[in-house]
Amino acid sequence: MFNSIVIMLGVGVLVGILGAILGIGGGMIITPVLTLGMGLDIKYAIGASLIAVIATSSGATIAYLRDNVLNLRVAMFLEIATSVGAIVGALLTGVLNPIFLYILFGFLLFFSGANMVRKLWGKNSDQITHTDDKLAKDLRLSGSYYDKNLHKEIDYGVTNVPTGFGIMFGAGVASGLLGIGSGAFKVIAMDTFMKMPLKPSSSTSNLMMGVTAAASATIYFFNGSILPQIAVPLALGIIVGAAIGSRVMQIMPTRLMRIIFIPILLYLGLQMILKGFGVTI
Amino acid sequence: MKTSKPATNEIQAVEQTIGKILRWGVIVAATIMILGLLLYLMNGSLGVATHYHVKNFSELLQGLLTGKPYAVMMTGIFALILTPVLRVVVSIYSFYREHDSLYVVITSLVLIILMASFWLGIEFHL
């Protein structure tokens, strides 16, 4: 009992740090630890992952709000798309063949991974757009943040808002239908398509993913998927880890964030495509 | 970009307010979770049958009143689940205070959708 609490606290700190930096939930770490490492049913891994997403989100968002890194307007606008998508996805369970979605979103992850590689090696990597599209202007989505690595205020525009909104809706459908997290897709929608800088993308994703996860949390709370002896130490570790991660991210070079992100996107993409064909890794 | 500066200050004020309240929400949830965890460690068990799980709020309250470690920990988790909701509610209020009616509408829409999925989850286990 004591051992498993200590392990969960430790895993939590790790998941919290990584999740806060990249704007993703830690399902890809938590699931193998619980299923392969501790021999628990996948059902409990899903429950624990859901609580982990909320803990990461709330833990990291405190610092991101205080330091004005995230973009609250973008978050709330896109949240409409994800949460409606999640409900639609849940309603479509059993109606729609998920294989198509798995493959589509698997390739989207690959595409974004490749896009990040291009940004990493390109000469004008991480160039900031200053041209808002019409919707971004009407919704006053453009923002600015102080980059603690570059020691300067970065003003940025937001573009391709309809595409970003569409991807967020699709990501919501996928998360409702397939039960996958959508943190990576949130970052992709903002970074790859809406041309936002990576730090506001990741921190905005952090704020949003908690809201998305909370929407489906009541189901899991009352259906026995949540083992408190697992979820509580995990969440406590994550709150500490996310507090650390949300500070580390701000002083990190954006390039380093991409270097960590790329293999994760490729791994998630491969995992999704294989899952579409019924192979679970 | 001349018009963007006051908008930026306004959004920063909104973010500061939400940040402060969110911090309190997380502190409350963490405190209940730590209490539950300590209770669990002292008792050496969850205080409930092996495959028991809570099915509704009245069961949770009953467990809480009888001081079961399981119920205290689950209450902490529920408090944590409420922190994103708190974030949305405070956002609506803060946008209202800043007279940003467009975002009062957008954020209220998010809250309505969130409430709808809470309800769908509890009623239909969707």
TrEMBL record, chain A:
Transmembrane segments: 6-30, 42-64, 165-185, 230-249, 256-274
Subcellular location: Cell membrane
InterPro entries: TM_pro_TauE-like (IPR002781), TSUP (IPR052017)
Membrane topology: Multi-pass membrane protein
UniProt organism field: Fructilactobacillus carniphilus
Signal peptide feature range: none
The protein's name in its UniProt record: Probable membrane transporter protein
Keywords: Cell membrane, Membrane, Transmembrane, Transmembrane helix, Transport
Keyword Ribonucleoprotein assigned: no
Pfam families, A to Z: TauE
Annotated family: Belongs to the 4-toluene sulfonate uptake permease (TSUP) (TC 2.A.102) family.
TrEMBL record, chain B:
Keyword Transmembrane helix: yes
Top-rank taxon: Bacteria
Pfam hit, one: DUF1634
Keywords, alphabetical: Membrane, Transmembrane, Transmembrane helix
Membrane-crossing residue ranges in chain numbering: 21-42, 70-90, 102-122
InterPro entries in UniProt: DUF1634 (IPR012861)
Record-given protein name: DUF1634 domain-containing protein
